[in-house]
Amino acid sequence: MGSILMKNKKQILVTGCSGLVGTHLVHKLLNKGYSVVGIDLKLSSSLPIDENFIFDKMDLRDADDVSVLFDHYKFDGVINAFGIKGSPIRAKESPLDFLEPSIKVNTNIIENSHKHNSWLVFMSSVGVYEPAEVFVEDTVWKTLPSPNDWFPSWSKRIPELYLEAFKVQHKYEKFTIVRPANIFGEYDNFGEGATVIGATCRKVYDATDEIEAWGDGTPTRDFIYAGDVADGCIKCLENELHITTNLGSGEEISIKRMIETVAKVSDKEIKINWDTSKPNGDMRRKMSTKVQEKFGLLPKLGFEEGIRNTYKYYEQNR
C-alpha cells in the first residue's frame, strides 16, 4: 500500500487505471489538481510519474484488500473503469471469465463506496442493451440482452442492479452510472482482440497499398473518443450527478467512413477492398444523447480528430 497522498487535495480512486479510459482519467484528474490512486493488475508505461499519483497492483476481487484500500486512503470519489475485455467467442466459451471478476470486483467497490460515503461513477457498457437502432437509458430493464452479448451484458447489468439495491435498502444515492458507446483512442489494444478501430489502425499502418474490409461498409456505429468518456465521468463526479446516462457521440458513423478516416489520417493512398461475402453485422447502433445533452456531457472532440490522435499514437508506440 502506497503512502498517503497530499491531504490538501481531493483523493480519487481510479480502477482499471492502465486501460483505455483509465489512463485518460489519471492524466486528466492530475491536470485538474486531484490526487489519484490507480489500481490495476499491471502498470502501464503510459501512466504518469507524478507526486500526486500512486499506483497499486491489486486484485480487486479480494474483499479484505479492497476494504484496507478504502480505509487507508479515505477516497473523496471513485471512478470505476474496471472491465473485462474479450471476444464474442471467449464470452461464449468462457463466460465465467466475464462474470466472476466483474461481480466480485464491483460488489467490493460498491460496498466500500457506500461504507465511506464516497461518490462513485460506475462505468457500465453499451453491451447492457438489447439489439436496437437507438439505445435509450430507461429501456434496459424492460428487455433482455442479445444472446451474443449475454454473459458480458450481465457482468455489467448485475452491478447496476446492485447499486439500485443499495439505493432501495440503504438510501445510497451517491453514484452515477455511465454507459459508453464504442470507445476508441490512445492507449487502446491494437493487437489480438482489438476493437474495430484499433484493428483498422494496425491494418492501415501495415498496408502498402490496399486493405480488405468485411461487408459493404454501410452499417453505422456510435464511436466515442476515450478522452471524452473520461471528461464525462469526471464531470459526473464533480457535479455529483445521480443519473444513469449514455456516453455516446450523438452521431452515426458508417464503417466505410471510419476506415476511410483512418486511411486519410495515415497520409497513405490506401485502396479498400470490400468483401461482401462477409457479414455486415447489425445495420445500426446509436446511443440516445438526450440525457447527455441535458447535463452537458456531449463529447467535445470531433471524430476525425480523435481518429488522428489514435492513429498517431499507434504510429509512435506500436
Proportion of residues in helical segments? 25-40%
Low-confidence stretches: none
Shape descriptor reads globular
Beta-strand fraction estimate:
15-25%
The arrangement of helices and strands along the chain is EHEEHEHHEEHEEHEEEHEEHEEHH
Describe the 3D structure.
It is a single chain. The chain is an alpha/beta fold and 318 residues long. The protein has ten helices and 15 strands. The protein has helices spanning 20-31, 63-73, 88-93, 96-115, 150-170, 196-206, 226-238, 255-265, 290-294, 303-317; strands at 11-15, 35-40, 53-57, 77-80, 119-123, 134-135, 175-180, 182-184, 210-214, 220-221, 223-225, 244-247, 253-254, 271-275, 286-287. The strands form five sheets. A seven-stranded parallel sheet has the order 3-2-1-4-5-7-12, with helices on both faces. Strand 1 (11-15), helix 1 (20-31) and strand 2 (35-40) form a beta-alpha-beta unit. Helix 1 (20-31) crosses helix 7, helix 6 packs across helix 8 (255-265) and helix 6 (196-206) crosses helix 10 (303-317). The longest helix has 21 residues, at 150-170. The two termini are 32 Å apart.
Keywords:
two-stranded parallel sheet; 318 residues; alpha/beta; 19% strand; single chain
Blueprint (SSEs and pairs):
Elements: E1 11-15, H1 20-31, E2 35-40, E3 53-57, H2 63-73, E4 77-80, H3 88-93, H4 96-115, E5 119-123, E6 134-135, H5 150-170, E7 175-180, E8 182-184, H6 196-206, E9 210-214, E10 220-221, E11 223-225, H7 226-238, E12 244-247, E13 253-254, H8 255-265, E14 271-275, E15 286-287, H9 290-294, H10 303-317
Parallel strand pairs: 1-2, 1-4, 2-3, 4-5, 5-7, 6-15, 7-12, 8-11, 9-14
Antiparallel strand pairs: 10-13
Helix pairs in contact: 1-7, 2-4, 4-5, 6-8, 6-10
